[in-house]
Amino acid sequence: NILIFLQQWFLLSGGILAPGPTTAVSYMSVKCVDVRKNHHKAKWLMPWGPNQCDKIRDIEEAIPREIEANDIVFSVHIPLPSMEMSPWFQFMLFILQLDIAFKLNNQISKCTLPTPSCLGEFLSSGFSEPVIIGVK
Predict the structure, then answer these.
(1) What backbone torsions phi and psi does residue 135 show, to the nearest 5 degrees?
(2) Burial class (CB in 10 A: 0-12, 13-18, 19+), 45
(3) pLDDT tens digits, one per residue of 104-126
(4) How confident is the model at residue 134 (pLDDT cuts 50, 70, 90)?
(5) How far apart are CA 129 and CA 122, in angstroms?
(6) Which pLDDT tens digit goes with each residue over 35-85?
(7) What are the domain boundaries of the chain?
(8) Strands (E), 26-123
(9) Is 55 exposed, middle or buried (0-12, 13-18, 19+ CB in 10 A)?
(10) Which segment of the chain is annotated as a signal peptide (predicted)?
């Protein structure tokens, strides 16, 4: 009896005193076009702001402009313009959902794998230049 009482007590006290769960925020990436040689080396492709990237709405728009797959960069700016991120922020988890357009006449080999490359940076009030935090 005492064991059941203690289990109920710990369950209730843990539910009351535990911190709130992590929240999820959905972001939609912007398809930026980068046609320079040596992609993704020095220029950050910003989805909004004064130095916006050259954008396309969908992949079909890339065909008449002769934009190759390696020239398309999916850019996301976190947090959104109206939000601020706390210095106490502990971790970020990203789930990438790919919507792939399939066409019957595409010549794709059976062993084709997508190879994503991810690059991140942060800008703190103490720095004048962004600091790179992760590559590939």
Answers:
(1) -130, 125
(2) buried
(3) 776 777 787 777 777 776 666 55
(4) very low
(5) 9
(6) 776 655 566 777 777 878 888 988 788 888 888 877 888 888 777 767 777
(7) 28-84
(8) 30-33, 54-56, 72-75, 119-122
(9) middle
(10) 1-24
